[in-house]
Amino acid sequence: MEKINAVITGVGGYVPEDVITNADLEKIIDTSDEWITTRVGIKERRVLKGEGRGVSYMGIRAVNQLLEKTGVDPKAIDIILCATSTPDFGFPTTASLIAYETGCHNAGTFDMQAACSGFIYGLETAANYIRSGKYKKVILVAGDKMTAITNYKDRNTAPLFGDGCGAMLLEPTTEDLGVMDCILRTDGVGIDHLHMRGGGSAYPSSYETVDNDMHYVYQDGKFVFKYAVSYMADVAAELVARNGLTNTDINWVIPHQANLRIIDAAARRLEVTPEQVMVNIQRYGNTSAGSIPLCLWDFEEKLHKGDNMIMAAFGAGFTYGAIYVKWGYDGKKA
Ligand code: UT7
Hints:
- This protein has ten helices and 13 strands.
- By secondary structure, it is of the alpha/beta class.
- It folds into two domains: about 5-180, 3-Layer(aba) Sandwich (Peroxisomal Thiolase, Chain A, domain 1); about 180-334, Thiolase/Chalcone synthase (Peroxisomal Thiolase, Chain A, domain 1).
- Strand 12 and strand 13 (about 320-325) form a beta hairpin.
- The longest helix has 22 residues, at about 220-240.
- The radius of gyration is 19 Å and the shape is globular.
- Oxa(dethia)-CoA binds near residues 39, 225 and 259.
């Protein structure tokens, strides 16, 4: 029997219209455009406004665009998997809300969470459904409403995050395309250094959790930075080596967009040029699970069938990983 590969056959995305610029932040916290630009590389980020709007609001729009671009009947979708750390609710899942509103009424749905590495973990999971031979059309939605858990009184984290969501369709192929290889890792050394502790089963929401800012992201930036720089580059380099690739074989490196200095370090380690690296952090900030799919969404028209891509991410846990993808089609789907 021929090997079944899982190939990405379309990409959709959504970012909210409202923007928070560095100048806006200068008015509410002790920071400067110069500090944010040079230390992180962000100029502005999107914010989803409107009461009752969660990740599903963005995911529904990303999936509707994906279905329109690919011309796929929503009823043919077998699975919708949503990678997010900021689900609309404790339950039901965000994936079930998205499936209902997009007409994917025959799909099995579930959420998964691997913090900022969610897209890499999600893509490997989605690919495995396809490779099993049982599922023919799987949608991965990945994104976060990070502004919902950002403390705009904390200058250590307020400039970093934004809202956005990507979606992609995976289908089977017997061509040598799609998700080729993946490495997933975790190092618990990060547990105390990057977290949001309130509202889960350990610390259910209470006046105390609110008073102690436990519903916001806490990050010890310097500690996280040190591990992000080495782990993201290490895992990407390991994946490249074990697939026998050289820097000239790689068409695109797509790193999680947390800090331009971390992105540059990964690019240096892989010895690729800036033209080979997808970057949009300056416009969206860190959208957590959304950052890599939003890069693919932004750069879609530049992509060619067979392009070799190395995607790598790092996040709370610390979870991290890298995935090697051979792109499935030419240019932008209308
Ligand atoms: O996406 C998941 C994983 N997350 C990451 O990968 C993020 C990793 N960490 C980082 O990207 C960086 O550590 C940050 C961007 C969060 C911080 O940059 P840094 O260069 O590591 O800054 P720092 O925390 O070491 O702070 C340097 C200085 C401090 O001042 P002193 O103590 O040297 O006088 C901070 O108080 O910068 C100060 N600072 C700020 N200044 C202006 C911290 N935040 C700000 C701010 N504006 N917003």
